[in-house]
Amino acid sequence: MAHSRFAPDRGLTTRMLVTMFLIGLLYVVFAGVLVVLLRGSWPLILIIAAGVFIVQFWFSDRIASFGMGAREVTPEQAPRLHGAVDRLCALADMPKPRVALADTDVPNAFATGRSPNRAVLCATTGLMRRLEPEELEGVLAHELSHVAHRDVAVITIASFLGVVAGVVTRVGLWGGLRRAGGRDSNTAILMIIVPLVSAVVYVISFLLTRLLSRYRELSADRAAALLTGRPSALASALTKVTGQMARIPTEDLRRVEPFNAFFFAPAISSRESLYNLLSTHPTLERRLERLGRISAELGR
After folding, report:
1. Active-site residues: which are they?
2. pLDDT for 6 beyond 80
3. Taking the model in full, what pTM does it have?
């Protein structure tokens, strides 16, 4: 964990290490299987895999900002947002990230970047319009804790490895089929085995990422509540943001849905939400129950 006054979470650290080890091992095995199956395609496979990984890791902040249509703003352009971030960074004793604003009515916020010194903290205009100052600080503290815990970089890498698996499979299969001429029995076998292996890799990495994602949200809620000393404000913001999702047009929610793993609250209508093995966030009830317990502990 980066040096800061955010409460450390050994459970989160352990889960991040285990998740990255398992996904990394899975990725190595997957690449090895493709090398064996596709033989002559292995140089292209390794180049594509390494290239996509490096781009995602080094430019994750820019990719996320571009995808959300976010723009960096100065203190003069967004004084309320910068003021809240300044106060929280001073309180947490951590570097101030770049501050961005996304022009969308979906009330949310996210943080991204490979390290605290390269982080970007983004809030939407919909969030800024709806929250009171204490609620906004609770949400921003939640996002800053992701940066301090470094789980932003971990979840970025973990969630992208499944995508890499798909890309590498397509490239390798295309190259292998071209050399085989698409006529012998080996080609038919490859057309069955390679997509099957890719699907297994994707499903396993997807489930591991979801498990980590749900835990890190609870950890960020706890760290933010303890730092600000106002778990009730964070609970109020969480309730308000989640409740407002039902009023957002479905088209707008679908547009930002790829960022759900990074959002403060999932951009999905509560009446459509099925919190189960596939969800990126814990249920609203569970998060509120945890915050209620923290509030009681602080009261004592």
Report:
1. 143
2. yes
3. 0.83
